[in-house]
Automatic annotation (TrEMBL):
Gene name in the database record: MUTYH
Organism superkingdom: Eukaryota
Residue span, Nudix hydrolase domain: 320-453
UniProt name for this protein: Adenine DNA glycosylase
Function, in words: Involved in oxidative DNA damage repair. Initiates repair of A*oxoG to C*G by removing the inappropriately paired adenine base from the DNA backbone. Possesses both adenine and 2-OH-A DNA glycosylase activities.
GO BP: base-excision repair; mismatch repair
Amino acid sequence: MFYSPHVEAAAKHWRRRDPPKKTSSAASPCTYHTFSDPAHVVLLRSQLLNWYDKEKRELPWRTVAETEPDVNIRTYAVWVSEIMLQQTQVATVRDYYNRWMKRWPTVQDLADATLEEVNQMWAGLGYYSRGKRLHEGALKVVTELRGQMPQTVDSLLKQLPGVGRYTAAAVGSIALGQVTGAVDGNVIRVLCRLRAIGADSTSAAVTEALWGLANTLVDPERPGDFNQAMMELGARVCTPKGPLCSQCPVQPHCHAFRKVHVKQEQNSKKLLGKLSRKASALPDIEDLSSETCQLCPSEPWVDELGVQNFPSKPAKKPPRVERTLTCVVARPGQQGEEEYLLRQRPNKGLLAGLWEFPGLLVEGENSEVQQKRALCAELRTILGTHLTESLFQYVGEVVHIFSHIHQTYVVHSVCLKDSDTQTQTGNAQWLTRSALQEAAVSTGVKKVCVSSTCTQKSKKIKLSGAKSSRQLSLSSFFKTVKEESSS
Ligand code: SF4
């Protein structure tokens, strides 16, 4: 399945070696989970860095890290990139990063921005508290640290909100040249495969072991490049599914790869009935697994998974299921452009401070009549006016998956004829379609826009005596959002 000219050499090399030693201590891991030979460490560094120098992607934050002479700007730029890259793919981050750095090229510029502007810029990137933390961090740097970004891993960790162990190590090594390993999701996968670490990768014992390995392996001359090379390897070669072992620069060091090869050899010998006593005496990682080792696999090996037997993760909790009634309320705008009613979410919790269509959480299934009644009551608190249930049009359901919530929006729409309809609360506003597209709204709200339709058949109602101006169809707006969303 995974075969290259390196395999045989690696397997032979491994067979020639003395079997890795088992330990009897409950606290000590089996020695094959470590890199005990300094020559192997030196070799791995050079193989990985040679590969990285040839294969690395040109990314805007890498360019800044390599070329920006001002350490304060460099640290700020890498910090922004690392926060954006948490939980988000490089391809998505690139454009956001470029726009962000163009608008706020220094930490002082970011501190001068408002949270609303930051939320606007972040809209669509997800995990919105990250933008808020960056803004808080910039304010802290400017007000408490005289505008100077922290210059060590420890101070990054202690002084910047939202900066954890990984982010501090990544920024410290990439921007400041500090010699420290950095362990993110990609690195966890690579290291677990390299050293056949099969225990729960979220456990404290595995976490500490991985940080120990990363600190052993990191190249003291090029710590930032080494850490980025490990991450790049995990993102492009040692991928969660379908890893490209035949193209892997560190394959000769990989226990998972060797194990697959040995297993295949054993299986084919078994098939041929040739598994001699001598061959079966070959030490396999499985045979060496210790019940007392906190890093050895706790689950049996699955042939079909190959190297993907590593790492091992606990089963994910199923997401919470929520249903939200939501209403797209439109009115003719003063400038001829249709306007939409939006309400701001609380400043804490999920999607803090973002704007959304009015709505409310519901439990269980509700009839359409019950839904309209509930939305009438909700809109009354915002508009101070009673809308009869017959004015609502049921649109449909939109599903949006957050990290831990399976959200279903049950969408209704109302098209008002009165351009003077006012909001009664401070946290609501009318936005034109162009303003809405620029506003701090979540992807879920955009999905509601895209999936909704307020066709020409929609009922247009009038709250006061004012005549409506031109009534635009919501569908034209949704079309525009769809194009933006899919680009
Ligand atoms: Fe490389 Fe494959 Fe080992 Fe990953 S599993 S480190 S891609 S040889």
